Amino acid sequence: MNNQTENSPTSVVDNTDQDDRIRNKRLGFMREALKMAEEAYTVSEVPVGCVFVHDDRVVGRGRNETNVMKNGTRHAELVAIDRMLAPNSGFKSEDFGATDLYVTVEPCIMCASALRQVGIRSVFYGCANDRFGGCESVLHVNSDEGIDGSPYPSEGGYYRDEAVLYLRKFYVRENTSAPAPRKKANRILKTQDLEIGGHDE
Question: Which of 33, 38, 48, 88, CA to CA, is 20 to 30 A from 103?
Fold first, then answer.
């Protein structure tokens, strides 16, 4: 009887509805992360943004601040973690175990390690970080059992093309904060290979 219930059309519809609700919720949080990336882009930072979500509520936000702070470690995730752990923030470090990160670009190796140290529950990201990714693209910092801290699952592809577009827009313009800026006057923004609008399969 239990198998009939599990395989009935109603339960399939319910599972699909639940999957759609979860997916839509994740996309909503990723849109919040994209707003932070846009804010970073507007102030000439590498456009990476993130939000931390606990009990379906955004409890932390961050964007890259490496140029403004002249500090290469001020990545979006670390900026948000510092703010969340600040005195009087209301967030307790033990809450990271029930907190998810939504970030526009796969966390780099440094950030992936920091997320293990704080004990994040899971990570959802937009586009892969093919040069420095710590959540499977380059190294498996998030899941490697030989590394200190709590392993966590990660899933990419949420608004991937939007995240890539922000990065491309940033890298075709001059970065006056770079140690030796390259002339980019002749670079062209490529967009024809992107499909804007959600989770890429």
Answer: 88
Residue 5 lies in a domain: no
Active-site residue, 174 included: no
CA dist., res. 201 & res. 192, Å (int): 18
Q: Which of 6, 32, 45, 77 is catalytic?
A: 77
**Residue entry with tokens 């577009």:** 165
Instruction: Express each pLDDT in 10-48 by its tens digit.
Output: 434 456 888 999 999 999 999 999 999 999 999 999 999
Distances (CA, A) of 103 to 1, 31, 148, 173: 43, 10, 22, 23
**Residue 1's pLDDT is what?**
40
3-state SS, residue 108: strand
Q: What is the CATH number of the domain that holds 65?
A: 3.40.140.10
pTM: 0.83
Q: What does the pLDDT read at residue 10?
A: 41
Tell me phi and psi for residue 199, to 5 degrees: -95, 120
The answer to whether residue 128 sits within a structural domain is: yes
Mean pLDDT value of segment 158-165: 97
**Does 4 have pLDDT greater than 90?**
no
Which of 76, 85, 89 lies closest to 45, judged by CA? Answer: 76
Q: Which strands sit side by side in the sheet containing 57-63, from one edge to the other?
A: 57-63, 49-54, 99-105, 122-127, 154-155
